[in-house]
Design brief:
The protein is mostly helical. The chain starts with 13 loop residues before the first helix and ends with a helix. The chain contains five helices and no strands.
Length: about 160
C-alpha cells in the first residue's frame, strides 16, 4: 500500500482492500490448492483409513513377534536354571527328592480321594481347575521345589560346619 492509496486517517481505500484480498486469495490458492470435490474427500478418507489399518496390523505383528522372542528367551533361561540346579545337586539329594516326590504324590492321591468324598461339587470344580493349572506348569514348580530343597540342604550343612 502506498501513501497515496490511504485516506487522511491512514486507512486503505476500498480499492486497495480489494487488491489486498485478491493477493491473499491468490496466495492461499497456490498454498492450499483448489478444494477437492466431495467424492475425492471420501476416497482420500478411505485411503487414509486403509493406510492406518495397515500400519496398525504391522505394529501388532511386530508386538507379537517380540512377545514370542521374549517368551522363548524366558523359557530357555528357565531351562538353563533347572539344568544348572540339577547338575549341582548331588545324586543322593536327587534320589531323596524323587522318593519324597513319590510319597507326596501318593499322599496327594489319598487326600484327593478323601476330599472328593466329603467336598461339595462346586468346590470340587474349582479345585479341579487349580490342579489342571498346576499340572500345566509342572516343570517350573518342580524346578522351584528342587531349588528350595537344595537351598535348605546347603543352609543346613553350613550350619553344621560352624
Amino acid at each position: 500500500m502506498s501513501d497515496e492509496s490511504q485516506n487522511r486517517l491512514g486507512t486503505p481505500t476500498p480499492e486497495e482492500l480489494r487488491e489486498q484480498v485478491e493477493r491473499t486469495h491468490d496466495g492461499l490458492g497456490r498454498t492450499v490448492g483448489t478444494p477437492a470435490p466431495e467424492g475425492d474427500l471420501a476416497a482420500q478418507a478411505k485411503e487414509k483409513a486403509a493406510v492406518v489399518r495397515e500400519q496398525a496390523a504391522a505394529v501388532g505383528e511386530q508386538a507379537a513377534e517380540k512377545a514370542a522372542v521374549a517368551s522363548d528367551q524366558l523359557r530357555e533361561k528357565a531351562e538353563q536354571a533347572a539344568r544348572a540346579v540339577k547338575d549341582r545337586t548331588p545324586e543322593a539329594v536327587r534320589e531323596k527328592t524323587a522318593r519324597a516326590a513319590a510319597q507326596v504324590r501318593e499322599k496327594t492321591g489319598q487326600a484327593r480321594r478323601y476330599a472328593a468324598e466329603r467336598t461339595p461339587d462346586p468346590l470340587l470344580e474349582k479345585a479341579d481347575r487349580a490342579a489342571t493349572a498346576a499340572r500345566a506348569n509342572r516343570a517350573p514348580l518342580l524346578a522351584g521345589g528342587a531349588l528350595l530343597v537344595a537351598f535348605l540342604l546347603i543352609r543346613r550343612s553350613r550350619g553344621r560346619n560352624r
